[in-house]
Amino acid sequence: MNTGSNEPREVAVAPDEQAGKKPDEAQDEQGLGSRAPEFIKSRRLLHLSWQVLVFVIGLAVVVVGIIMLPLPGPGWVVIFCGMAIWATEFVWAQLVLRWTKRKVTEAAHRALDPRVRRRNIILTSIGLVLIGAILGVYLWKFGFEMPWNIKDQ
Fold first, then answer.
1. Is 21 helix (H, G, I), strand (E, B) or coil?
2. How many other C-beta atoms are found inside a 10 Å radius of the C-beta of residue 62?
3. Between vectors from CA 25 to CA 21 and to CA 30, what angle results, nearest 5°?
């Protein structure tokens, strides 16, 4: 597996991995490596500066996404946007992003499976019935009184 090439649009996969794909699938897959403009890649110092800039911007976006996880906001979406920024320049981020896209697609296909949907609907219905029963027992016993205002049971 060749991941150390600086050639533009070179796909870093083993030949046996390409053999099982259809010809149009192999062409659709983008190559790994830097997507910086050619004039930047041709100058070593400029390319290194470009990579540092892309890394810092991607890191800032990922950190903001991590901060958004416990706070209101689309934390995971922002983290994946930071990974996409990194993937414009770094092979490791491209591979992680590819793996993540594959896993999300698999999860979406599993979620659309009729058996899984039926199971989720049944479990949700059972949960709602249990919550309704607990709420009914509470209202029957205490009325519309808040739990912290109940003096003596």
1. coil
2. 18
3. 120
Whole-number Å distance between alpha carbons of 56 and 3: 22
In this predicted model, what pLDDT tens digit does every residue of 41-93 receive, in sequence order? 777 888 888 889 989 999 999 999 999 999 888 888 999 899 889 988 888 88
> How far is residue 147's CA from residue 149's CA, in Å, rounded to a whole number?
5
Residue 32 pairs in a beta bridge with 10
Amino acid at 73: G
For residues 62 and 68, what is the distance between their CA atoms, to the nearest angstrom?
10
- Residues facing 10 on adjacent strands: 32
Contact 50, 72 (CB under 8 A): no
Phi/psi region, residue 9 (left: phi>0; alpha: psi -120 to 50; beta: rest), is left
Name the residue with higher pLDDT: 4 or 60: 60
- The pLDDT score that the predictor gives to residue 89 is 84
Q: Model's pTM, two decimal places?
A: 0.52
C-alpha to C-alpha distances, 47 to 11, 135, 148, nearest whole angstrom: 20, 63, 63
